[in-house]
């Protein structure tokens, strides 16, 4: 059997399919963007058909790019934007509504009601999450309450709920499989991450029928075989993980204490806590990192909403740069004497503050402040927010004597200046890997290993190669001074 694996990375703004060979090198890529729908302020939807057709088309493009056919592929791995919620009719396969995207805030009132009903403790204890519209639970409830006839059909077992992985697998297998994996289930606000099952108390509290839910499998498992009509021959789907968890796998963060941080539009940092299900006292999320052979590895997660988006703001909002890669060189020329801070709370602040009402602010402006200082403030804001997450993680949990090393990936890590500043402000080394497609690589490893054509965890981890390590070079005193300035800026921005 060949060592080629096809990974589908269904993200928030685009779908990518990537073919890897057995030396983890990318040999074929297909990518397509699709339309974002914003029917009202705070509402974000995707057309389910777009998620499906871009998946099929990019799979075909990636195979053609690699000069391979489906018969050469040992297995498919799927990784996906998490929490995004779909419900469809089991008979017709037709969605009852557009997908409600993870960013969608329409269920804020519903969540406030759950909070008022005193559900926070139950939800956090069982799922490791906090009550927030971000997760799937309230989105499912909204769909059942809003779409005419949906609740009755759901109770009669005629409807299926799924995150994007489930939706794609349903379609890839010609409607034969209704499944998901443990990492995606752990983002639903309905899944008991200790017992590894949907939670009846929560289903009752949110009024969601069990008949709606998919079967939950390990991340490396038999998720079904693709309908031969799609690629010319059936290919087994053998790996699934939510995109941030797939990055943990792709970065080979398999030992407790290892941390990965992905810098795309937002930033998601996860620390592997092994088999310890750590309850955060610093407002981080407890989540399933991966589940293999029935054994769950847990993680603490911190989510920041604005990372690369701050660079987009410099480009599209302020017009200070034409391309994202100009931000680092511009920041490098900033006046070191000016202490300018940007708190990029454009859509509120995520972990560890969770203040949805906060809005962006700048501090320390003078007549001398110009584009260079604003660029530096924008890039540094991403570093400072990471420092806050890591501090919260270490307050919650740490491995005795372990030195923190951060493994980074995502579009923004192309910026050497930002990565150096990140190391400086964290006071810890930052490792950038050779293969930057770590999310897809993680999904590919799950499938490739399950197919028996890629090595085990240790063998895969040994193949992880750094492109560059950024070592902290800032003095401890300067680091402390800058962090204090940042924290003062955040304090002045928070609304509560
Ligand atoms: N050289 C660079 N310097 C700074 N930011 C960058 C650079 N290249 C890309 N970015 C930022 O990274 C983000 C794109 O990363 P990507 O991982 O593709 O994001 P996503 O998957 O969320 O769409 C954009 O917000 C962009 O502004
Ligand atoms: O599609 P991305 O890369 O923006 O990731 C989205 C996250 O999974 C949301 O939790």
Automatic annotation (TrEMBL):
* Classification lineage: Bacteria, Pseudomonadati, Pseudomonadota, Alphaproteobacteria, Rhodospirillales
Question: Where along the chain is glycerol bound?
Answer: 82-83, 134, 243-244
Which pathway is recorded for this entry?
A: Polyol metabolism; glycerol degradation via glycerol kinase pathway; sn-glycerol 3-phosphate from glycerol: step 1/1
Q: Which principal EC class is assigned to this enzyme? A: transferase
In Swiss-Prot or TrEMBL terms, this protein is called Glycerol kinase
Give me the Gene Ontology terms describing cellular component.
cytosol
Superkingdom of origin organism: Bacteria
**Function comment:** Key enzyme in the regulation of glycerol uptake and metabolism. Catalyzes the phosphorylation of glycerol to yield sn-glycerol 3-phosphate.
Q: Which Gene3D superfamilies match?
A: 3.30.420.40
EC number(s) of the enzyme? 2.7.1.30
Please give the activity regulation comment for this entry.
Inhibited by fructose 1,6-bisphosphate (FBP).
Q: Does the keyword Transferase apply?
A: yes
Task: Report the InterPro entries cross-referenced here.
Answer: ATPase_NBD, Carb_kinase_FGGY, Carb_kinase_FGGY_CS, FGGY_C, FGGY_N, Glycerol_kin
Molecular function (Gene Ontology), one example:
ATP binding
Q: Does this entry carry the keyword Cell inner membrane?
A: no
What does the entry list as the binding residues for ATP? Answer: 12-14, 265, 308, 312, 411
Recorded hits in NCBIfam families, A to Z, give:
glycerol_kin (TIGR01311), PRK00047.1 (NF000756)
- The UniProt record lists the Carbohydrate kinase FGGY C-terminal domain at 261-450
- Where along the sequence do coiled-coil regions lie? none
Residues that bind ADP: 12, 16, 265, 308, 411
């Amino acid at each position: 059997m060949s060592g080629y694996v096809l990974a589908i990375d269904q993200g928030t703004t685009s779908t990518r399919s990537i073919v890897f060979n057995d030396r983890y090198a990318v040999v074929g890529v297909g990518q397509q963007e699709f339309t974002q729908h914003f029917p009202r302020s705070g509402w974000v939807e995707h057309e389910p058909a777009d998620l499906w057709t871009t998946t099929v088309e990019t799979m075909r493009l990636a195979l053609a790019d690699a000069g391979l056919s489906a018969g050469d592929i040992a297995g498919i791995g799927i990784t996906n934007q998490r929490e995004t919620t779909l419900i469809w009719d089991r008979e017709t396969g037709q969605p009852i509504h557009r997908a409600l995207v993870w960013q969608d805030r329409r269920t804020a009132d519903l969540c406030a009601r759950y909070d008022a009903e005193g559900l926070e403790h139950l939800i956090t204890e069982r799922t490791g999450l906090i009550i927030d519209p971000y997760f799937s639970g309230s989105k499912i409830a909204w769909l059942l309450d809003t779409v005419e006839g949906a609740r009755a059909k759901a109770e009669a077992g005629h409807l299926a709920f799924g995150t994007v992985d489930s939706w794609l697998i349903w379609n890839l297998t010609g409607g034969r499989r209704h499944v998901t994996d443990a990492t995606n289930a752990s983002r639903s606000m309905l899944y008991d991450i200790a017992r590894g099952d949907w939670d009846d108390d929560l289903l009752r509290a949110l009024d969601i029928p069990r008949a709606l839910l998919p079967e939950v499998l390990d991340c490396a498992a038999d998720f079904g075989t693709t309908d031969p009509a799609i690629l010319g021959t059936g290919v087994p789907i053998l790996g699934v993980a939510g995109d941030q968890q797939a990055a943990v796998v792709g970065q080979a963060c398999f030992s407790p204490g290892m941390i990965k941080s992905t810098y795309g539009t937002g930033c998601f940092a996860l620390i592997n806590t092994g088999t310890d299900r750590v309850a955060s006292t610093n407002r981080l999320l407890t989540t399933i990192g991966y589940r293999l052979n029935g054994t769950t590895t847990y993680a603490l997660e911190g989510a920041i909403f604005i990372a690369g988006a701050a660079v987009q703001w410099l480009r599209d909002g302020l017009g200070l740069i034409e391309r994202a890669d100009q931000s680092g060189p511009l920041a490098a020329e900033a006046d070191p004497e000016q202490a300018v801070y940007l708190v990029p709370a454009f859509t509120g602040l995520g972990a560890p503050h969770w203040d949805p009402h906060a809005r962006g602010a700048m501090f320390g402006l003078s007549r001398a402040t110009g584009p260079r200082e604003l660029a530096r403030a924008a890039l540094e804001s991403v570093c400072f927010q990471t420092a806050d997450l890591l501090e919260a993680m270490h307050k919650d949990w740490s491995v005795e004597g372990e030195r923190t090393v951060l493994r980074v990936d995502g579009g923004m890590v192309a910026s050497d200046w930002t990565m150096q500043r990140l190391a400086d402000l964290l006071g810890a080394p930052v490792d950038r890997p050779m293969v930057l497609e770590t999310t897809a690589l993680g999904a590919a490893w799950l499938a490739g290993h399950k197919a028996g054509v890629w090595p085990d965890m240790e063998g895969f981890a040994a193949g992880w190669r750094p492109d560059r390590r950024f070592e902290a070079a800032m003095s401890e005193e300067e680091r402390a001074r800058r962090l204090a300035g940042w924290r003062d800026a955040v304090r002045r921005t928070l609304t509560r």
